[in-house]
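Researcher: Last one for today. Full complex below.
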Amino acid sequence: MIDMDKLVDTKASTQSKQVFWDQDVYDQEIKNIFGRSWLFLTHESMLEKNGDFITTKMAEDSVIVTRHSDGSLKAFINACTHRGNSVCTADSGNAKSFVCNYHGWVFGTDGELVDVPLREKCYHDELDRSSLGLKTVRVESYRGFVFGCFDETAPSLEDFLGDWGWYLDTWMVGAGEGAELVGPPMKSILKCNWKVPTENFVGDGYHVGWTHASALNVLGGELGGLAGNQADMPFDELGIQVTTRHGHGFGVIDNAAVAIHAKRDEYDKYMQETIPKVAENLGEPRAKLFNGHWNCSTFPNCSFLYGTNIFKVWHPRGPHEIEVWSWVIVHKDMSDEGKKEVVKQAVRSFGTAGTLESDDGDNMVQSTHGNRGTHAREGTMNSSMGQGYEGEHPDYPGIVGSSFIGETSYRGFYRFYQEMMSADSWDDIRANDEHWADCFPNKDYWKDRLAARSAQAEEK
Amino acid sequence: MHNTEAKARVSAQLHYELSQHYYQEATLLQDAEFATWIDTFVAKDLHYWMPVTERRYAKDKRPAPTPYDMAIYNDDYDEMKDRVARLLTGAVWMEDPRSTVRYLITNIEAFHTDNDDEFVVHSNFAVYRHRGQLEHSEHIGCRQDLIRKVGNGFQLARRKVSLDARVTEDKNLYIFF
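Model: Here's the assembly. Have a good evening.
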């Protein structure tokens, strides 16, 4: 029995080192977290025509996602109901059906079993095909981003995203046209626990200056000053961090959306033209976010950098290994030339050979394997930066931290992680809807801070 | 961009010279002489490309990737030079202590083109990276290059790197193939 209060201590802001190593913790994560959460599958732009399909993973399960002949999206487990073979071995394509290589069972693009060789002669026409369809998965889209869920009792995708959807709309709706993903995804193996990159993306503005010193040195520009944490920058006034009800969260550096892109003429032009339209469409608070650079994770394992525009999923493969899949986000209403520029620059910084990505992988691996030793694992990890300097904000939903360099959204991620790991069902989770933010007790933080800021401004 | 037509195979003498150039290039990269490599072995009009190739069914008639599609490398000369500059900042923590990278370059086939001083050269590679105590990775694939005769040597103008693996089994591909 795992002691959940020891695994995550929300008051002390610590996590047991067991979270990155232990097999029993991992097994429970697969059951309680990946078995109940909405998991990112693909973007609708990759399933435009009826019969289009992609194969992906939901935790360690192989999944096929299709655009069925009636135009609806379907998702099912890629395992034949006869002897368990995969029925699709391609990354993507267009198909009328999926035929198992082993005995030739044929499944439709809705997963139904439509044909079985020797059905009449050898099954004597007695096989109940209607009960032998591929195991289906709930599938729903948010602004064209397609997610799947194994749990029939889970809330809708929109409710699962909750306030995080309000933030996502900043660019998933933007000026109106929204965004899509460009693939095919790059794929690589990283020997780390799935939570290490997830927590890094959800709220680690702290590592940027040190881990990425080499790339920022060469890049220069707005973020060059962060390299080595040497510059005299207003580190507590660069942006904010946010966490929401279901652990989704992000950090944002103000006015830095395009800062990682070395070549960005088209992107700069697009941003200048589009920010006023976003302000008109969604209001000033989100127009400000639209021009910021975000590091984010959608609970549990889907991360992205808005601005740099890389979009990633961390598929777990046991407690000490993940498969990393990376796409690029592009605004639909951007010029073709602009989209090409964004794809190239996003990959150059955060693709498999990215100038910044290449700094991160080693940290992910070391953070995991540092816990191999029995005595190392007796300790805890700390995520207390900025604790108490966070609360409800008049303009932004969720709990908002004072600076983009802080660990508010780490704390929010592990708070919900502990809740999901402990809960017997979604009913248990729903019962906590009113009290989830109790571990962020400084309710007047933003009221006081904003008042102090206006007083300061008046003095000047 | 990468579709220069390969004509007749080159002579034994030219094949020898090109092979020696490829071995020298591998030695420079193995010895981390990245500045020498980019300054003397690479042409200013470089395009260095590593496309992402999906696993698709034989009947799938969608075109092969172009340099406008998703690619792991899609760099011009200045961008490659920036990659070299990053390695020389002294702030790539992962490379101190240094990893060792070993290049086995084989199956070199070289062809004339319509330009007297340019050659299409195909080669296979096995690249091994070892780091720390037990960490190691290997990358197998092929390269299709456009190589230009410059003075007494050759310079790389186009390189398409094709990896055999769909999923990269390494923490990054910040290795010059």
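The longest strand of chain B covers residues 135-150. Chain B touches chain A through 36 residues (CB under 8 Å).
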